Amino acid sequence: MLIPFLSTEAPFAILLMILSGALIIRPLIAWRRSLMNTGVFFVACLLGDLLAGLLEGYMQPAALRWLREMSIFGEGLAVIRYLGLALFNVVLPRMRVHISGILADILVIIGYVAWGFLRLNLAGMEFSHLFATSAVLTAVVAISMQDTLGNLLGGLALQMDNSLEIGDWIQMDDLGGRVSDIQWRYTAIVTRSGERVVIPNSHLMKNRYSVLCNKRQAVPQQRRSISFNIDLSVPPARVSAAILQDIQTARIPNLSLEPQPQCLLLDFGPGFARYALRYWLVDPGPDEVTDSDVRHHVLAALQREGIRLAVSDQTIHLVQEGEAHREEVRARELNRRLQAISQIDLFSRLSEAEQLELARRLVNAPFARGDIVTRQGAIAHWLYIIVSGEAEAWWQPPDGGQQRLLEKRGPGSLFGELGLMTGAPRRATVIATSDMEAYRLDKAGFEHIIRARPELAEGISAILERRLSHFQALETGYAEDKPGHSASQGSEVAALGKKIREFFGL
């Protein structure tokens, strides 16, 4: 057997390596390469210990003693490494005791140093000489490695007082990102552009930084704010109501509704009032993307209400070419509205003059992606014509069941025609699935046409009946009209015609 040729410490080292290795080999599978390197180092030291025993009597005793002491010292380092991993990464976590990684590394290093002092003492060097020598070395090292020691102590302080943790979002001057790692020398953060920035711990300890999102806070989200200017003639209550109604009902990714968004009047400028919309982000990462989405909704909400963003008062001298250009723009817009109306079967019975009059009464109504265009059960006497973009119609069963998607609508579609013609409540909730441009037609815009030609009510009622039948089929889950439905078509037409006449007072 080879054991007689090993040192007396070797069997204990082998036993400790086997026991600690059995504890850490499965839980620390990610450390496999490091564990393998330590194991190879231990085997190499063990072979050196064995070689010193085999060559005894064949080489000078001093050389063999030096080889054996170095081998035993290396074996001890490997054992301390395995024991440290087993204690700090397996045993203590199972006991629900967690310590910082830097503190664990420091304790392992102290174990290395203590093992070195012990081997030197067993080799014949007295502790008094060791401490005197180590004190001098410590002073020299402390002077020559001030920055390194500052980083070490800074990293230890950051983890001990929990002022900074992995996963926190921080902002330091013009640098911001999520903390991905805290080591004994540096703290690493990943910026929003994906860059990994290494910051010395001593720099963090000496300078101020802001923790944007701390997972230990009661409200872990980050607050954002965008500002905009509105003409002084617009009442502040109207601006706040339009903005908050849109933001609180729209489906904007990464925007938190708790705490609730706020629309505040901040200041007054030359001819305008400055407002700010404050809201919270669920994830601070895509902050600029979320800000852009919010601006889309703010602009669309203001345009729907006929509220324009204001600029400073200026005096502008217009020339004849400018007026001609505006006339050209108005004509182009009017032609665009006529094209939108001509595609709608509901207005197919109107004359060219009536369609032109109707086009002049359309109101521009843009919606941002996620906006609630109409809400089921609401009463509103207008309809929308989609010019660009898409929307979805969702229906809520009367028993309060889960919402179901009825249909998707794109350019050339309209919705809200029953509300315009009969005053009936909205039959579905319509949500914009993309930025959508639409025109709105109010009851007053169509009332004078149908009053002038009451016979239009019958033709329009037939078109509405077909749309109503289709919608009822969608509600019941069928793709086409139910069998036998055509038998009652005449009564439905008569009923809708009567409602149209009553609604417009014909």
From TrEMBL:
Xref: InterPro entries: cNMP-bd_dom, cNMP-bd_dom_sf, LSM_dom_sf, MscS_beta-dom_sf, MscS_channel_2nd, MscS_channel_C_sf, RmlC-like_jellyroll
SMART domains noted in UniProt: cNMP
Domain Cyclic nucleotide-binding, residue spans: 346-467
One Pfam family cited in the UniProt record for this chain: cNMP_binding
Keyword Membrane in annotation: yes
Keyword Transmembrane helix (UniProt): yes
Residues that span the membrane, as ranges: 12-31, 38-59, 71-92, 99-118
Membrane topology reported for the UniProt record: Multi-pass membrane protein
Subcellular location(s) per record: Cell membrane
Domain of life: Bacteria
Record Gene3D superfamilies: 2.30.30.60, Jelly Rolls
Any coiled-coil regions, as ranges: none
Protein name per the record: Mechanosensitive ion channel
